[in-house]
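User: Sequence in, structure out. Go.
Assistant: Echoing your sequence, followed by the structure tokens.
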Amino acid sequence: MSMGTALATVGNVNVDLIMGPVTPWPKTGSEVICPNNELRVGGAAGNVALAWQAMGLDFQCAANTGSDHFGDWLRSNFGTIAAGWPRCSENTTVSVGVTHPDDERTFLTTTGHLPKLGWSEVDAQIDWEHLRGGTLVLCGSFLTERLSAEYDHLFDRADRADVTVALDTGWPIAGWTQEVRERALNWVARSGIVLLNAVEATCLTDTNTPEQALVALSDLLKSDGVAVIKLGPEGAIARKNGQTFRASAPKVPVKDTIGAGDVFNAAFSAALSQGSILQKALEQAVATASLAISSSPRRYIPEEVTV
């Protein structure tokens, strides 16, 4: 599996409005005052792109938006990177994240523009020669149904360009039915890297523990493929060529966990693309995600210590 310095992400970019914390869940007809709110770029692909941008990395992002002011706002956050994003007639997808004091959250998400993104639009946006030998983080599979139905074309094109696909499916809206599992396992089998959280991994592989799921995913991957399971406050585990790696997470004061897994994906793929060995990439990804969830405004790079 070839690792280059080029990076790209494909999938869901949408608007996130974060409100909270709220407890208990409001009664019908009531009004609740939230002490905090933040309007920001969201979606798995959006979070990956935002992290790479903050890290000062060169990358591509293939996505779409609606034709409304929210779509314009999303584009304004990425400048030339968003120049090729098509606009569809639907409103831009908006996700309202309601946070709770126990660090959990509830999402209210509109369908919006995401189902309109297709393979032809993605193919036109990616400079495959520039990406040759690099890594493409593919995410938001169950929110971009038109695109995921055409994933075979994407995997074929990536294979021809010697591009490693790093897959994070996300959570299926209809749950892990047998049909959904079969589709997702086929995607895993064509990927070079798979990046799932513990619940997603165990549900997808029908196993009882993250360690069992890690082996099952690793066995499905291409030769020399990398399976990664994100364990939240327990860090992360990875497996490659029959060897298991583990990185522990530091204890940090949690401010905002939304998008933590996406930040992990961004840092992990970036570290590998820059030549880090798997263990170091895993540690760097855990450290970056830990910094992100414990900082406000969110940070991705530790501040320099001056003496």
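User: And one key feature?
Assistant: The mean pLDDT is 94.
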